[in-house]
Amino acid sequence: MDWGMKNRLSRLVQPDGHCFFLPIDHGYFQGPTRCLEKPAETIDPLLPYCDALFVTRGVLRAVVDPALQTPVILRVSGGTSMICKDLAHEGITASMKDAVRLNVAAVGISVFIGSEYEHETLLNLAKLVDEGEEYGVPVMAVTAVGKELEKRDARYLAMSCRIAAELGAKIVKTYWCEDFDKVVEGCPVPVVMAGGPKCETEREVFEFVHDGMQKGAIGVNLGRNVWQNPQPVAVMKALRAIIHENATVDEAQEIFEQVKGK
User: Fold this and answer.
1) What's the alpha-carbon Rg for the chain, to the nearest Å?
2) How far apart are CA 9 and CA 218, in angstroms?
3) Which letter does DSSP use for residue 76 in this model?
4) CA pair distance 38, 52, nearest whole angstrom
5) Pairing with 185, which of 54, 58, 178, 216 sits 20 to 30 Å away (CA)?
6) Which domains does the chain show, CATH number per domain?
7) Does 173 qualify as catalytic in the annotation?
8) What is the pLDDT of residues 78-103, one digit of tens each?
């Protein structure tokens, strides 16, 4: 692995081997998502507590301070919206040259295993990996399932993650599920957990993140369950304790309550 690739990965994955990525890329298919109507205001108090920001180039250029020291993961797939027939019909929406121009630490692309557009999204990933190797930029594959949430079981996610790794992804983002260890054990590259739909309580978030970390994930890429919470900073501090300090669910809940009360 080239020095540049290693350097970028070292900025994302912290010395303890873990990471907390904050995605705010939802607008690329959802439009002005609740609590992301003004993304700069949403992320400003949260940036000190995340290890990387997952964002589109449009929002990055429009509202993120160029003096930002937090590493950036650039969303480079899209081309569909919530009102289209199939969210899986994605293409590559930003070039690797633009990613380098933006000085990002990695790029992220969705793949839709089992969809009508599986072939196209996997070839998009493979093409991006080739370009990433040329420029020294790691690729994070996102095992997306579109609107078909019932696909989120260990067998399906394990297959999706393994395929993404086989095609050259350096990190794979996938959903937590029951028997999550089977997903991680079958993937030869690091796995981070996605948040999925917003949980009913903070404790639900703490529970699945703790379980996933115990079963081999290196961290999370968590958005709505953070910035749609009325106390986003408290959630982030509690999650950081689980991810970087091996805190229990009860300890995380206590941190949340303490920060919430201030």
Assistant:
1) 17
2) 13
3) -
4) 19
5) 54
6) 3-200 (3.20.20.70)
7) yes
8) 999 989 888 999 999 999 999 999 99
